[in-house]
Amino acid sequence: MKDFMMIFIGADYEELGLSPEELQGRMGKWWAWNNKMEAAGILKGGNALIPTAKRVSGPDRTVSDGPFVEGKELVGGYYIITAENADEVVKVAEDYPDYDLGGTVEIREVMVFDQ
Amino acid sequence: MMNPKVVDHLFRHHYGKMVSILTRIFGLSNLEIIEDAIQDTFAQAILKWRNQFPENPEAWLTRAAKNRAIDLLRQSKATQKRIERVASGPAVSQLNEMFLDHEIEDSQLRMIFVACHPNLDSKEQIAFALKTISGFSTREIASALLINEDTVSKRLSRARKKIVKKSISFNFPDAHELPKRMARVMEVIYLTFNEGFHSNNKKILVRQDLCGEAIRLCKLMLKKEKLRSGELYALFALMCFHAARLESKISANNEIIDLRHQDRSKWLFPLIVLGNDAMNKAIETEEFSPYHFEAAIAAEHVRSPSFEKTNWHKILTYYQRLNELQFSEGSLVNMAMVQLQLGEYEAARANLERVRIKELGQRAYLYYGCFAEYYTKVKNIPEAVSYLDKTILRVTNELEKEHLLKKRDHLSALIK
Question: How far apart are CA B74 and CA B81, in angstroms?
C-alpha cells in the first residue's frame, strides 16, 4: 500500500457566496465522504486550509502576505489516504463534493525514501 | 467516525436568528455589515467542522458570528465608539443576555415588524422577510418567487434604504398601533404562504420551503402572549390545512392534481392535527375574521373522506359569511364553484354574472374556468369547450395550463 495526497483546489465557499442552506448541504456531503473513507479504513488524515497566506522567498527571506492566487486556484485543503495505486484514489476522489462549484482534485503519491 | 447531528435548516434558521439579535445590538443601520459577518461565519464553520465537530454547533455559530460582526464593525469608523462600548466593560453581561433563547425570539419578532412595516411595499416586505428572517439567499428568493436575481437585489436594497431613511425603529409597535400592524404582518405571512402554495415552480422543495417559513413565522408570533389572537390562530390553522395537502397536489410527473383526484391518504395527518388544535383556540374569540372562515373551509375539505362526500352545504355557508365580512369577486367565483357541486346550477350562474371580471385581475381565468364547469354540468359541451379556451388563454401557471389543455381535449372528444 502507498500513501496518496488528494489536494483540493478551487471552490472557495466564501467567494462563491453560497446561501446558508447550500453551505449546510455541502457540509453534509463532506462528512458523508469523510465517513465513507474512514469506514473503508483508508483515511490517514487531512485538513482544510485558511485562504490567507504568507510567502517567504529569496536569499533575503522576503516575506509577503497573500492570498496570491484567485479563489479558483486556491488550495483549500487536503486528505491523505492509503491505496494500491493512483487509479484507486481516482475512484475515491469521485465523491469529492465540489466539482459542481468548479473545484478540482489533484492526486499525488507521497514519496517514500529507501532506508 | 463523525456522526454529527445537524438539524434541518439549522444554518438558514440560525442566520435569521443572528441577524435579528445582532441588529438589536448594533442597530438597523448596520444591517448589511451584520449580514456579511454571518455569511462569513458559515463559510468558516464548514471548513472548521470538517475535522472537528463542535459539541454545540448553535453556540459555536452564535459566538463566531458575534465576534465576526464586532471585527467588521470595528473596521468601519462610524460605529467604532458604539462597538467599543458594547464589546467591553459592563455592557458585556447585558450583551450576553441578549443571546438567551427568549431574547432571540424577541429580536426575531421585532425584525418581523420591521419587515412588515407599512413604509415598505408588499413586494419589498416579502423579499426582505425571506432574506433577513428566513435566511434565504438572493438566488433562493429569486427561484422561490420566480423573479430574477436583479429584481430581488433591487427590492432588498430599496427596503434597506427605506428602513434607514425613514428611521424605522427596532421596537415592538405601541399598544394602540398593534392591531393594525399585526394585520399587516398576517397579510405578509399569508402572501408568503400563497407564493409557495400557488406557485408554478416545479420544484416541490422550493414550494415547501416558502410554506414552511410562513408557518414557522406564524408559530413564532403565537409564542408571544401579547401577539396572540383568534385571528392569528385561524391563520395558523388555515396554513396547516393547506400545507397538509401540498405534496398531493403535484404528481410524480409534475402535473397538477385537482382536489377531486388527490390521493387523500397522502395528506399529512400531523399538520391536520396541528391545524385542528389551532382552530379550537381560534374559535374561542367572539369575532370571526376572514381567516376564520377560510380556515373553516379548508378544514371541511381535509375532514372529508372523499371529494364526493364533501359537505358542500357547510362550505357554501362559510363562503357566504366570508363574503359578508370581506366581499371579494374571488369568493363569488368560489361560491359558484360550490353551488355547481350542489347541483344549484342557476344560482351558480347568477353569482358568476355578478362578478366584475376586471377586479379579478390575474385570477380572471378562474371565472372562465368556472363557467366552463357550469356548461359541462348543464351538458352544453360546445360552450364548455369555448370557455375552457378562454381560460387557457388567461392562465399563467404552466402546470395549470397543461391540466386545462387535457381537460379540453377530453371534452372536445365528446362532441366529435
Answer: 9
The reply to whether residue B135 touches residue A21, judged by beta carbons under 8 angstroms, is yes
Question: DSSP strand E in A1-102: where?
Answer: 2-9, 43-48, 54-57, 62-65, 75-83
Model pLDDT, residue B82: 63
Half-sphere exposure of residue B42, counting CA atoms within 13 Å on the CB side?
32
The domain made up of B327-416 is a member of CATH 3.90.105: no
Domain spanning A2-109, CATH architecture? 2-Layer Sandwich (3.30)
Euclidean distance between CA atoms A51 and B241, whole angstroms: 49
Ordered by start, the domain boundaries in chain A are 2-109
Query: Do A27 and B14 count as a contact with CB atoms less than 8 A apart?
Result: no
Query: HSE-up of B218 (CA within 13 Å, CB side)?
Result: 31
C-alpha cell at B31: 444591517
**Residue B1: which of A13, A38, A46 has the nearest Cβ?**
A38
Q: How far is A75 from chain B (nearest CA, A)?
A: 13
The ipTM, to two decimals, is 0.75
pLDDT digits (tens, 9 = 90+) for A36-50: 999 999 999 898 888
Q: Which of B11, B60, B133 to mutate to test the interface with A (most CBs of A within 10 A)?
A: B11
pTM of the entire predicted model: 0.82
Cross-chain Cβ contact A76/B4 below 8 Å: no
Contact list, A22 vs chain B (CB under 8 Å): 137
Nearest of B363, B406, B362, B414 to residue B388 by alpha carbon:
B406
Contact B11 A23 (CB under 8 A): yes
Summarised one tens digit per residue, pLDDT across range B343-391 is 999 999 999 999 998 888 778 888 999 999 999 999 999 999 999 999 9
pLDDT in tens, B76-89: 766 666 666 666 65
Contacts of A24 in chain B (CB under 8 A): 6, 9-12, 42, 46
The pLDDT of residue A69: 80
Amino acid at site B380: N
The residue assigned the cell 403565537 is: B222
Highest mean predicted confidence (pLDDT) among B133-142, B174-183, B274-283: B274-283
Q: Could you write out the DSSP letters of every residue in B56-93?
A: SHHHHHHHHHHHHHHHHHHHSGGGHHHHHHHHSTTHHH
Q: How many CB pairs under 8 A join A and B?
A: 75
Nearest to A26 among B1, B3, B46 (CB): B46
Sequence ranges of the domains in chain B: 7-99, 327-416
B7-29 residues labelled b (16+ CB within 10 A) or e (exposed): eebbbbbbbbbbbbbbbbbbbbe
